Every structure is written in C-alpha cells, then in structure tokens.
C-alpha cells in the first residue's frame, strides 16, 4: 500500500509532473530514483530539482544510434534552460571533484554508466570498487543530489553471460546506493513510490 506521500504535489507546468511528490528543500539531500525502462524515472528525478537555482545535470549516455540520439534529445528538451549539462560516460569521480559540493546535482543514469564501463573492458570488481568510491563522494556532497539508476532485478534472467554480469553488478551497486541515500523512490508506470525511509 502506498502511504500519503503524494498529498503535497509539485506545482509544475506539465500535467505529468503534478503527480509527483514535493520533497522539501534542505531535507533529504541524497535521493535515489530507480525504475525500469520508460518508467518515468528521469522525469521524476528532474522534478525533484525544479526549484533549485542552479543544477548540474551529469549525463552518462552516449549516442550509439539514431534511437539513442532521439532519447537524448528528448531528455535535453525537458531540462530548464538554466541547468548546466555535462556529458561524461565513464569518469564520474573526476567530474564530481570539479563540481562545487553545494550545487544541486542530477546524475542520470548509473545503469548506463555501469554498461559503459563493461563495454570499455573494465572488470566487475574494478567497477564495484569505483562505485563504492562514487557513492562515498555523493554522500559527502552538501547540495541536493539526485541519482537515477535502472532497476534490473524484476525481469527475465538474461540469456547471455555478459547480461547476467551486468544485472548482478548493477543490482549490487543499486543496493549500495539505496543504503547510502536519505530517500529512495521506485518509479512504476510514471508513478513514484517512496521506498526509503
């Protein structure tokens, strides 16, 4: 059963955004948003930062084909003009070291980051260690920090060995993120369900 978390709503222009809960500024500064493909997780994550005066959008996706190019364009078109976007597919820690700790940050998406590192030939243990360092760095930030990841444990078992490595690795990293986060949401069919606290 979903609690009364949706009672205070975002006064945003998009009809879809009016469904999303307001998370008061200054509280719960590290927020994890997870969900399946096309669940609405990125749109919800963006809504959590709409009232911030400055936001850095750290995007991990790379254009690999026309379909991905269209998805990236759609994401870009939704962002407010005053948001600054950095696209970095692999070296997230290096970027975080250069960003003021008190600036609001949206990191989208950890699932794509893990995939990028695997495709680049990194070993699972190395990626898990990098993720541990990344989670620690995110936890130390002073500004509101929203991290988007993909929920991978609810579907079919991947048929390929590489698919199973990805699923298992991202599942472990998601658990790390959820433990460190102040709040966590699972987005299902465009509706956010608060799962932590």
Automatic annotation (TrEMBL):
Annotated binding of GTP, by residue: 35-42, 59-61, 76-79, 87, 108
Class in the EC hierarchy, top level: transferase
InterPro entries reported for this sequence: CobU/CobP, P-loop_NTPase
Pfam families, sorted: CobU
Keywords: ATP-binding, Cobalamin biosynthesis, GTP-binding, Kinase, Nucleotide-binding, Nucleotidyltransferase, Transferase
Coiled coil (UniProt feature): none
GO molecular function: adenosylcobinamide kinase activity; ATP binding; cobinamide phosphate guanylyltransferase activity; GTP binding
Active site: residue positions: 75
EC number: 2.7.1.156, 2.7.7.62
Reaction(s) this enzyme catalyzes, per UniProt: adenosylcob(III)inamide phosphate + GTP + H(+) = adenosylcob(III)inamide-GDP + diphosphate; adenosylcob(III)inamide + GTP = adenosylcob(III)inamide phosphate + GDP + H(+); adenosylcob(III)inamide + ATP = adenosylcob(III)inamide phosphate + ADP + H(+)
Protein's pathway: Cofactor biosynthesis; adenosylcobalamin biosynthesis; adenosylcobalamin from cob(II)yrinate a,c-diamide: step 5/7; Cofactor biosynthesis; adenosylcobalamin biosynthesis; adenosylcobalamin from cob(II)yrinate a,c-diamide: step 6/7
Top-level taxon of origin: Bacteria
Function: Catalyzes ATP-dependent phosphorylation of adenosylcobinamide and addition of GMP to adenosylcobinamide phosphate.
Family, similarity comment: Belongs to the CobU/CobP family.
Protein name: Adenosylcobinamide kinase
Organism: Ammonifex thiophilus
């Amino acid at each position: 059963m979903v609690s009364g978390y949706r009672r205070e709503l975002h006064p945003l222009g998009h009809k879809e955004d009016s469904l999303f809960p307001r998370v008061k500024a200054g509280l719960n500064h590290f927020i994890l948003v997870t969900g399946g493909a096309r669940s609405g997780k990125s749109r919800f994550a963006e809504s959590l930062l709409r009232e911030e005066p400055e936001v850095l959008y750290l995007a991990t996706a790379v254009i690999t084909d026309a379909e991905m190019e269209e998805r990236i364009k759609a994401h870009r078109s939704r962002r407010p003009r005053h948001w600054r976007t950095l696209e970095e597919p692999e070296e997230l820690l290096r970027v975080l070291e250069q960003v003021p700790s008190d600036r609001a940050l949206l990191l989208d998406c950890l699932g794509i980051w893990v995939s990028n590192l695997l495709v680049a030939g990194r070993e699972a243990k190395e990626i898990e260690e990098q993720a541990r360092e990344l989670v620690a760095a995110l936890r130390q930030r002073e500004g509101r920090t929203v991290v988007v990841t993909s929920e991978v444990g609810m579907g079919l078992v991947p048929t390929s060995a590489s698919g199973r490595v990805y699923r298992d690795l991202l599942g472990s990293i998601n658990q790390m993120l959820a433990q460190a986060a102040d709040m966590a949401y699972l987005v299902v069919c465009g509706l956010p369900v608060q799962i932590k606290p």
